[in-house]
Design a protein that fits this description.
3 helices, mainly alpha, rod-shaped
Length: 109
């Protein structure tokens, strides 16, 4: 097999790998962005509250904030599956914080 044929096969294989890699990323991009945007917007809302936050809520907010930062770092490092799982963990922590807020609100009213 001549060297030019090997080079052509290598280039085709490299192109297929790049297409697969970015297709794989695009498949995970929408749920990742949805989770990150959801958590960030709810974090902004929680941080804008004028009253003191209920006990325990601050811990979950800090956890969600840390997980969002970690998910972004993983995404930029091309670790898309781990970034998506971390974004979902951040959403879970945010849900727990919101549940605490809701329970406290209902108890006051």
């Amino acid at each position: 097999m001549p060297a030019s044929s090997v080079l052509v096969l290598f280039i085709i294989a490299a192109m297929l790998y790049v297409f697969w890699k970015f297709g794989y990323r695009d498949e995970r991009a929408e749920p990742y962005e949805e989770a990150i945007n959801d958590v960030e917007s709810r974090l902004d809302w929680a941080r804008s509250r004028p009253t003191p936050l209920p006990a325990g809520m601050e811990t979950h907010l800090q956890e969600a904030e840390t997980l969002v930062a970690e998910a972004k770092k993983l995404w930029n490092g091309m670790k898309w599956d781990r970034a998506l799982r971390t974004a979902w963990k951040a959403r879970k922590a945010m849900n727990q914080a919101q549940d605490i807020f809701t329970a406290d609100y209902k108890a006051r009213n």
